Amino acid sequence: MPEYTLRIRRYDPQSGEAAYWDEHKVDLGASNSVLDAILKVRDEVDGSVGIRCSCQQAICGSCGVRMNGKPGLACNTHLDEAAARMHATGWNPAQGGEGGGGDVIEVEPMGNMPVIRDLIVDMDAVHWKKIQRVTPYLINKEPVPEREYIVPHENMVDVTQTMACIQCGACVSDCLSMEIDPLFVGPAALAKAYRFVGDPRDAEHYERLKDLSEDEHGLYDCTHCFNCIDACPKDVAPMSQIMRLRRKAGSDHEIEDRNNGYRHEHAFVKNVRRNGLLHESDLLSDSYGGKFHPRAAPELLSSLPTAATALARGKMSLGKVLLHQHKASKEVKKLFDVIDGQTERVELNLWVVGYEDEPDESPGEQSPPNVAEAEASTAPQDKSPTFPAPGVQAQSSSSESEKP
Ligand code: SF4
Ligand code: SF4
Ligand code: FES
């Protein structure tokens, strides 16, 4: 049986002592979970190790921790998988410690939330507060139907991905925007917001979108770092839900927010249409209506120190800033023409994938994957597709509004 070295980050804020690494050898199989190892240490060696857990089946969302630098559920992460993370990055958390090599697993509390003790973080102080912020319940339309309110199948499939959230906080743990702006509403709460914005029974789609667009820590505060997509053990893809909220706010409801998020997104499109590739130095002024727009002047002035640093570090060159050619290739123009020619925005829910029918038993004659899976197949191939609950098929949802 392999032997793993478990290094647990211990910290008790009330003790007044600094955090430290507590190292233990555990004899467990590779397919045991990290939670098994933590509980073994707690049960057999040191009963004071602080860890929160309940279901041990990736359902309750209470055992979120960071394992070798990546957040996730301790009960849903095999020991070999956690240890392999170190191999993949070449980072050895046990450098200098005993028992280094490939079988060391460092377990830390999740980030962006205060530590209560050891591996237990204060979810109330951050995560749940943000969930409350987005009015996490349905505000029903009137009149309420006498019997059940039947939701069209495609709408139900559309919100299924967000409904898979188990509120573990792994996405919050590694959100880069939240690290810079702790007031950011955050990935889990915004994914929750989409759950109601995508639900036809809810009466306040516009109000929800307007509120989150106008909030300077809201919809447009996400920097598309993908960390939440990577972290989520349930494939909720919070960043994708945020982008869908933005499309609904900007394209469907034409909400021009005071944070300039809507105009900034349109400036991206305009910039690429004109230049072929994103030309960053024009982006700021474009976002404020162009270089000569009165709104752009204070923004350009305030960005001068950043531009000077970028020039000094070679990230920008004056030649490219001033003399670049505004010329997109014919291919880029053609792509824009195709997009402009569409009257309907088609959004594929790339999460709910599967086969239209049961795969044929006979060898070599499997049913072809449906549209969504075909689309999803452009994603990295090493990730197994997620299969829906029986009877749920892949769907696409569309909006009648034109895409920006
Ligand atoms: S993509 Fe946005 S919401 Fe997700 S972790 Fe990054 S900044 Fe946060
Ligand atoms: S979106 Fe995913 S990572 Fe975030 S709280 Fe929900 S299940 Fe956890
Ligand atoms: S113990 Fe419930 S999700 Fe891990």
Outline type:
globular
What top-tier CATH class of the largest domain fits best?
Mainly Alpha
Q: Please provide the ordered H/E string of secondary-structure elements.
A: EEHEEHEEEHHHHHHHHHHHHHHEHE
Which sheet architecture does the biggest sheet show? 5 strands, mixed
Please give the share of residues in helix. Answer: 25-40%
Describe the protein.
- With 404 residues, the protein is an alpha+beta fold.
- It has 4 domains: 3-120, Roll (Ubiquitin-like (UB roll)), CATH 3.10.20.30; 123-252, Fumarate Reductase Iron-sulfur Protein, Chain B, domain 2; 271-331, no CATH class; 369-404, no CATH class.
- 38% of the residues lie in helices and 10% in strands.
- The chain contains 17 helices and 9 strands.
- The protein has helices at 34-44, 79-89, 124-133, 153-163, 170-173, 176-180, 187-197, 205-214, 227-231, 238-252, 261-275, 280-287, 296-302, 304-312, 318-323, 330-340, 371-376, and strands at residues 3-10, 20-27, 64-67, 70-73, 104-108, 115-117, 120-121, 345-348, 396-399.
- The strands form 3 sheets. A 5-stranded mixed β-sheet has the order 2-1-5-3-4. Strands 6-7 form a two-stranded antiparallel sheet. Strands 8-9 form a two-stranded antiparallel sheet.
- Strand 3 (64-67) and strand 4 (70-73) form a beta hairpin.
- Helix 4 (153-163) packs antiparallel against helix 7, helix 8 crosses helix 10 and helix 12 packs across helix 13 (296-302).
- The protein starts with a strand and ends in a 5-residue tail after the last strand.
